[in-house]
Amino acid sequence: MYDKLPSAITMGEPSGIGGEITLKAWLQTQKSSRPFFVLDSPERLSTISSSLGLDVAIAAISDPSECADVFSSALPVLPLESAVDASPGVPDPKNAAPVIESIKRAFAYAKDGQAAAVVTNPLQKEVLYRADFSHPGHTEYLAHLDGPNVIPVMMLASPMLRVVPVTVHVPLMKALETLTKDMIIEKSMITIAAMQRDFNIQRPRLAIAGLNPHAGEGGTLGDDETATIQPAIDELLKLGTAEIFGPVPPDALFTARARQTYDAAICMYHDQALIPIKALDFDHAVNVTLGLSIVRASPDHGTALDIAHKGIAAPTSLLAAIQMADEIATLRHTSAVTPNV
Predict the structure, then answer these.
(1) Prior bond to 247 cis, omega within 30?
(2) Strand partners, 77
(3) SS3 state of residue 196
(4) How far apart are alpha carbons 38 and 6 in whole angstroms?
(5) How large is the greatest C-alpha to C-alpha distance in the chain, in angstroms?
(6) Could you read off the pLDDT of 271-291 as tens digits, one per residue?
(7) Is the domain of 11 the same as that of 147?
(8) Same domain? 274 vs 303
């Protein structure tokens, strides 16, 4: 039955808080949520549970189909083939293999219908780069696994705000140099389709952020709005599938009153999107990858190496990610919505 189809949780950086928050998430959800299993080392999670006094029973499983039978009494863990040898707070490139294996296998289970969704624990990206990982992060790697023509879009979503950065994991100067009308149109169209399919908002309202102070002040503070952003808005309006407005001065876009006027904000660069949502709702913000054939969500925080295995990490954002992934997966399964873009 679909409601028993589990979600797959990845290990994330084993020297960070992923193991702790996963154990705590199970303690809060084992009787009420869609079951989930973790691609990790059962021994590692058992050690963390004992050392932190969490009293979580660990059940090693060999297949996702076994998850539903044990979830109410134990955290199901599907063992990795690669060995995990991690010290709290001290990332090591030798663990890149199990980290990547965890993501790859979770994706495969979701792709072939054995998992309803993938929820990824945070990565320590520079450690993967030192092990020759060629992708900027989860989003790009999952798109690579999904197919050559997949264009991933990162959305940060919470009950208070949804934001999509057009340029993502690039230095700010490069982001400004590479921003184009076509990029804004492409990311916005993928966002519209996702709002229709995954959030059941059939005519979404998109606010397009300006780039310069006062959205350029008519060109006196920069011409990016008139040369790049407004032409993108004009093209999007021609589609007729969403309500589009802007460019909105960035300093006015995230006030309580402004947030009531749109369903998602399209932002021009990484921090323009992430600073407001983290300031407004850090604990409940979820990173959702739009444009994939599978459902993927992640807590919107890092590996927190400084508090790893100290028993103080909160599972709030991971729980929000698990819930949002469940909601999106259920909507995709039960709805016949075809994106109108």
Answers:
(1) yes
(2) 38, 60
(3) helix
(4) 10
(5) 64
(6) 999 999 999 999 899 999 999
(7) yes
(8) no
Q: What is the mean pLDDT of the chain?
A: 92
- Under 8 Å between Cβ of 37 and 78: yes
Q: Which of 287, 264, 267 is nearest to 184 (CA)?
A: 267
Question: Could you give the number of structural domains in the chain?
Answer: 2
Judge contact between 106 and 37, C-beta under 8 A: no
Pairing status of strand 286-290 against strand 264-267: unpaired
Tokens matching residue 236 = 């999007």
Pairing outcome for strands 264-267 and 243-248 = unpaired
Residue 129 confidence (pLDDT)? 85
pLDDT digits (tens, 9 = 90+) for 308-318: 999 999 999 99
Amino acid found at 165: P
How far apart, in whole angstroms, are the C-alpha atoms of residue 262 and residue 273?
Answer: 14
Domain containing 81: what range?
Answer: 1-152+292-341
* pLDDT level of residue 246 (50, 70, 90 thresholds): very high
Mean pLDDT along residues 122-126: 88
Q: Are residues 256 and 334 both part of a single domain?
A: no
Alpha helical stretches, state H, the chain: 18-29, 42-52, 67-70, 96-111, 125-130, 138-146, 172-178, 181-198, 224, 230-239, 256-259, 270-281, 316-334
Confidence of residue 336 (pLDDT cuts 50, 70, 90): low
